[in-house]
Amino acid sequence: MLDSITSPIDIKNLSLKQLQSLADEIHTFLINNVQKTGGHLASNLGTVEMSIAMHYVFDTPKDSIVFDVGHQAYTHKILTGRKDRMHTIRQKNGISGFTKREESEHDSFGAGHSSTSISAALGIAIANKINHNDNKSIAVIGDGALTGGMSFEALNHAGDSDADLLIILNDNNMSISKNVGAMNKYLTKLISGKVYSTMKNKSLVFLERMPRIHEFAKRSEEHLKGMVLPSTLFEELGLEYYGPINGHDLPTLIKTLQNLKAQNRPRLLHLITKKGHGLDSAENDPCKFHGIAPASDNSNTQDSSYSNIFGRWLINTASNNKDLIAITPAMCTGSGMSEFEQKFPEQYFDVGIAEQHAVTFAAGLATQGLKPIVAIYSTFLQRGYDQLIHDIALQKLNVIFAIDRAGLVGSDGATHAGCFDLSFLRCIPNLVIMAPSNGLEMYKMLNTAFKMESPICIRYPRGMSSVKKYETQDIVEVGKGNVLLKGNKIAIFSYGNTVGAALKAGKELGASVIDMRFVKPLDKQLISEIANSHHQLISIEDNTILGGGGSAISEYLHQKKITTSLRILGLPDEFTEQGSQEELYQQYGLTAQGIIDATK
Questions:
Q1: What is the rounded CA–CA span in Å between residue 374 and residue 400?
Q2: Between 189 and 167, whose confidence is greater?
Q3: Sorting pLDDT into bands at 50, 70 and 90, what band is 180?
Q4: Calpha distance 263→266 (Å, rounded)
Q5: Average pLDDT rounded to a whole number, residues 224-234
């Protein structure tokens, strides 16, 4: 049956039995396909029935379905004509692992980061009203994404509007890891409060058979609700609340969505789903199966990954320092903090998908003499940028930012590439910015940062360190680079993950190679010495060329009126593509050969 589905129109005339068979086929297809290609498996297994029901009831692209994050959009892609390209998902020149407007007319809004769907869908709904059409706008958001502050801002606006907006809350009690926070507890109470839902459903079925008191029953519904269950937060915000219902029950889903489609006011449908539904191993360990590597990828050893090195440093340092406080915005496992959480629960805080709050929460801790460390992906730090400036840097507060996934991250593509952090951090006063070239350097920099009394940023890449032994008590001198090779004529200034390519090129060229270590403060004395003793300079970094480390060197040379030629290698002024890290480094010339070619 699945082979005959090339667009959502193809499922409109299927029976409920056929739709269930289709759901079973898609489950099998996802398991087989994602295990080969890698990708987000558990979240997609949990939303097959929901996606089928939405496309059965609504008419995309006329109606807009806005997925939050996009982790769960694989079934949507299959139903909208991309099944035959699913084997290319997250690969170079393949389809995106998230929704992407330029990929399909059925992708009404691009995704990748959390908590954006309600805002976008509300904008679409209000635009529909302005444009005088009856198109429907649907936001699909998970309970994890609902912890993000942007979701509350959007709910606040939506409830005060008369927009034709349907919010579908996909509640599986998970984000990437186990969900946390008061909202999670609140939703759990709603789920357990089945007395009202059961009474309401059964009583209204009975009353439907008694027309004379049916109108009285409708008028009495709110009074009944008030006696049995307090009104929900969503209703207090001005949204009609429906649910919770089983998100894997196709007949109920379809009937409910058909009823809700007929309405034209802000409303929220609460679905209960199981992350990893239909695959026992994924249901039992949804965190492990959230994102899986391709079957051909045997590089799953994590002992010397940068994330694990950070986690090991946290544990070793916290053993003797009770003032160390580790903070994560819902990325415990990805940031290498799982063991730390278990060993030092009083010094660990997962604040949910709330990057802005994480940064300012750390600021508050720092004012009281504690040493907060915010572990955050580079691309997600963008979301806490104002707080970093206003609440941390301006007040010179003693906070460390462990910035993971800096540079090119690979198959997650442009939405997750950490290629702007050097540029947006370097312009902020009072920051110290470090870029380690391997795990040992990273460990030393973390030691250094912990001894300092100022805001510190340490940005490091996704993947494995070339140095496997990294635990040390050593520190680095602040603002000092390290000459790794001494040559003549050509000198290569390298930052972070590009040092390996610089060394390889330097040996072939007979060039000097400098591990800059610090983007801010710059080692100006070393730059002057190198520039005045060489004929050609090259800088290389896995950050956008505009405003990055190479730009810092160029600005200094211009200030000192040093005219030695400088060629800056980095990422171009465009959003990066998806593909493996190795493919992308090749594409953008951030390799030894790229450096050699730049000297010609």
A1: 6
A2: 167
A3: low
A4: 9
A5: 55
Task: Evaluate whether 38 touches 293 at the Cβ level (below 8 Å).
Answer: yes
Burial label, 69 (beta-carbon count in 10 A; 0-12, 13-18, 19+): buried
186-195, 245-254, 308-317, 541-550: lowest mean pLDDT where?
A: 186-195
- Closest to 372 (Cα-Cα) out of 352, 345, 354, 347: 347
pLDDT digits (tens, 9 = 90+) for 554-573: 999 999 999 999 999 999 99
- In the prediction, which pLDDT does 223 show? 42
Domain co-membership, 68 together with 182 = yes
Q: Are 514 and 499 in contact (CB under 8 A)?
A: no
Q: Does the annotation count 83 as an active-site position?
A: no
Residue 118 burial (10 A CB sphere; 0-12, 13-18, 19+)? buried
- Quick one: 399 and 499 in the same domain? no
Q: Determine contact, residues 486/467, Cβ cutoff 8 Å.
A: no
Q: Contact 353/147 with Cβ under 8 angstroms?
A: yes
Note the pLDDT of residue 447: 98
The 10 Å CB-count burial string (b at 16+, else e) for 308-341 is bbbbbbbbebbeeeeebbbbbbbbbbbbbbbebb
Residue that is written with structure tokens 């903070």 in the block: 327
Mode of pairing for the β-strands spanning 456-461 and 432-434: parallel
Cis, bond preceding 251 (omega within 30 deg of 0): no
Instruction: Please indicate whether residue 208 is annotated as part of the active site.
Output: no
383 a catalytic residue: yes
The per-residue pLDDT of the chain, averaged, comes to 90
Quick one: 153 and 33 in the same domain?
A: yes
Q: Give tens-digit pLDDT for 76-106.
A: 999 999 999 999 999 999 999 999 999 999 9
Per the structure, how many domains does the chain have? 3
Q: Place 199 in a pLDDT band, splitting at 50, 70 and 90.
A: very low
Residue 247: both structure tokens together: 């998100």
- What CATH number should be reported for the domain holding residue 327? 3.40.50.970
What lies within 8 Å, CB to CB, of 407 at 6+ separation is: 378, 417, 418, 419, 461, 462, 496, 497, 542, 543
Question: Is the pLDDT score of 182 beyond 50?
Answer: yes
In this prediction the pTM is 0.86
From the candidates 275, 312, 517, 520, which is the catalytic residue? 275
Give the residues across from 404 on adjacent strands: 377
- pLDDT(500) > 50: yes
Q: 542 and 441, same structural domain?
A: no
In sequence order, the 6+-apart residues with CB closer than 8 A to the CB of 428 are: 388, 389, 393
Domain that holds residue 112: 2-193+229-284
